[in-house]
Amino acid sequence: MKIVGNISLDSLTRDLSGALWIFARLREDGSAATSIHRYIQREVWRDANSGDRMVKGVALLFAPLMLGVLVAVFTTLNGRAIKKRAGKGVIQQIREQIELARRFAILPPWYYIFELHDDDKKTHASEYLNRFETKAGLYRFLRDNNGGLPVPAERSTDCIKDKARFRTRCLEHGVMTVPVLLNVAHAEVNAVDWALPDLPECDLFIKPLHGQGGTKATCWEYLGDGRFQRNEGEIITGDELLGRLRLESRRRAFLVQPRLVNHKEITDLANGTLATVRVMTCRNEQGQYEATNAVFRMARNKSVVVDNWHAGGIAANVDICTGQLGRGTRGAWGATADGWYEQHETGVQILNRKLPCWPEMIELVQYAHGSAFSDQVVIGWDVALLDSGPCIMEANKAPDLDILQRAGGGPLGNQRLGKLLAFNLRRTVEAKHALGFPKQNSTVPTHA
């Protein structure tokens, strides 16, 4: 989403939030959430380069104008609906947005995403983990320093970014992941899990080798007689499809995979598109890898090919112990005013449904983290639940926590994931200080 000219919402809010957060003053309460915020203020951003510091300085200079724009935009999108549903006036919403930005660097989009117009939730505002903290600093700090443990010579980070290498690494460690039939790059077609350099006669899913959020991904249904139909309706032959991929691969490489179908118990929730679980695993105090939170993502309609939440899909919290679904919620900017769904828009029940293969899914991601990606402190996994069992689609080294906090109905800072992040941050900082880095004054809990 664009706010002004070519400035994206994500970059604008990241820079503004970071600038405001530098000057935030948090009451010391000994909690994991406050520890994380303080570590980021005093340790993580200490390592920021001069360019990042300059950007934050400029953002702070224009903070009143930028904040005013965000307040105007998101109050317009959500204000009246929230007034009608929650009974809080638009003027009061504006005041609260400004106060939360001043105290906690929580900007207007997240006032609505996290439903901080609810007074009970607003009292826990300091416990939310923000995108500008996690994606712009915390994850990289932990990853670069291996959470305070010795950094191995060979890192798995590049394998996570490269989907083909990710598949190879998973196979080497016996981790179930989606097959790659063909790799198309620089106008050349290379067979991977397929015997011939042409298209198999089955439904296909094609996505960029390097990409996020399902951008440029397409589904192709096999019609027979060598013809494929795109999700948008176009029909072409397999040779024509390969020719198109060769041409487009001069700019970006593509993977050709079989189109997967959800487990029969949840196909009614998938709405024609593969639905996936986003599940978080994090290194714990014993050096094991623990699943802490999960959400189930569903497409709203059959016209899309991915279940991306920020593109307007539906997400429901999943009880990490039982695999039971909570209510569904949307994630597109401005869609938060729609509230919550006990049923899918198709009429299918969401609330209290139990996902199949849940113990196997938890075992799979914990094993995958510990065996193939043990140098990563935290990973967000995308997992499909199939009739054959759970299948890992992707791993995310900088997973978004908005979806977990929105669908879970509250902040993560003092939940198990927040406690593990605080523990790993403390150990990382202590390890850096032991190597001679200057220590910053901070009081943090020594328990997790």
Concise structural overview:
By secondary structure, the protein is an alpha+beta fold. It is built from 15 helices and 16 strands.
How much of the residues is beta strand, in percent?
A: 15-25%
CATH class of the largest domain: Alpha Beta
What is the assigned CATH homologous superfamily of the largest domain?
Answer: ATP-grasp fold, B domain
Distance from N terminus to C terminus (CA atoms, Å) equals: 38 Å
- Overall geometry: globular
Explain this structure.
Mean pLDDT is 86; it is low at 1-7 and 439-448. The chain has three domains: 2-145 and 416-434, no CATH class; 154-174 and 263-408, ATP-grasp fold, B domain (D-amino Acid Aminotransferase, Chain A, domain 1), CATH 3.30.470; 182-258, no CATH class. It has 448 residues and is α+β, with helices and mostly antiparallel strands. The two termini are 38 Å apart. It is built from 15 helices and 16 strands. A seven-stranded antiparallel beta sheet has the order 4-3-9-5-6-7-8, with helices on one face. A seven-stranded antiparallel beta sheet has the order 14-13-12-11-10-15-16, with helices on both faces. It has helices at residues 9-22, 32-44, 50-61, 63-86, 90-104, 108-113, 119-122, 131-144, 157-161, 163-172, 238-248, 267-270, 358-372, 402-408, 416-434; strands at 2-4, 7-8, 182-185, 188-191, 204-208, 218-224, 227-230, 235-237, 254-258, 276-283, 289-298, 314-318, 325-330, 340-341, 378-386, 389-396. Helix 1 packs across helix 8. InterPro entries: RimK-rel_E_lig_ATP-grasp. The chain crosses the membrane at residues 58-77. It comes from Nitrosovibrio tenuis. Keywords: Membrane, Transmembrane, Transmembrane helix. This is Sugar-transfer associated ATP-grasp.
